[in-house]
Q: What sequence folds into this?
């Protein structure tokens, strides 16, 4: 609710202080965006391995993009855009509290991204890319270190697959923490 409060304070202040408060609104919206992108995990209405997660992630990304579009209007319309921002925030908050993480904003509100706000870049959740990069780098380094260690110790070649498999498990745990099985999602891309 601090983002909505920021909108109200900025709307009431019409002088130089109002411009500073608009920056607070932007900072609050950045926090809301992160919360929206995590809503499918934090609200607890969908299992970790549910087939619905992908659709929920896509919906969350569109909601975050719509909030960015509303934030962009602050630079164009100033305080006049604040009521719309506050209304969007209240709708998202209400729907989140109701557990409606697949309907944080109505379809007509999201369709504005295709009609009115076509120049707004879609929000991407880069955490998945960072996890993949961490996984690949960890795997390569650990497999190379394990193979070098096995060679240095004079272990037979039959140990090499075990070392590489262990490196993969350790890399998955490093990249994905409590859900190392998510690394298996990338197997089709690596010929697995």
A:
């Amino acid at each position: 609710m601090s983002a909505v409060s920021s909108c109200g304070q900025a709307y009431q202040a019409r002088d130089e202080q109002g411009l500073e408060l608009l920056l607070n609104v932007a900072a609050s919206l950045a926090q809301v965006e992160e919360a929206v992108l995590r809503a499918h995990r934090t609200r607890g209405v969908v299992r970790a391995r549910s087939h619905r997660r992908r659709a929920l992630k896509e919906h969350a990304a569109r909601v975050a993009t719509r909030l960015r579009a509303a934030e962009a209007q602050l630079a164009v319309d100033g305080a006049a855009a604040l009521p719309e921002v506050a209304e969007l925030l209240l709708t998202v908050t209400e729907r989140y509290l109701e557990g409606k993480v697949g309907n944080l904003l109505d379809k007509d509100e999201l369709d504005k991204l295709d009609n009115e706000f076509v120049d707004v870049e879609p929000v991407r959740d880069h955490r998945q890319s960072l996890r993949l990069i961490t996984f690949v780098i960890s795997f390569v380094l650990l497999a190379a270190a394990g193979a070098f260690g096995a060679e240095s110790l004079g272990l037979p070649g039959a140990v090499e697959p075990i070392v590489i498999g262990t490196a993969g498990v350790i890399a998955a745990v490093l990249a994905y923490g409590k859900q190392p099985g998510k690394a298996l999602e990338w197997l089709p891309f690596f010929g697995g």
Notes: The CA atoms of residues 25 and 82 lie 9 Å apart.
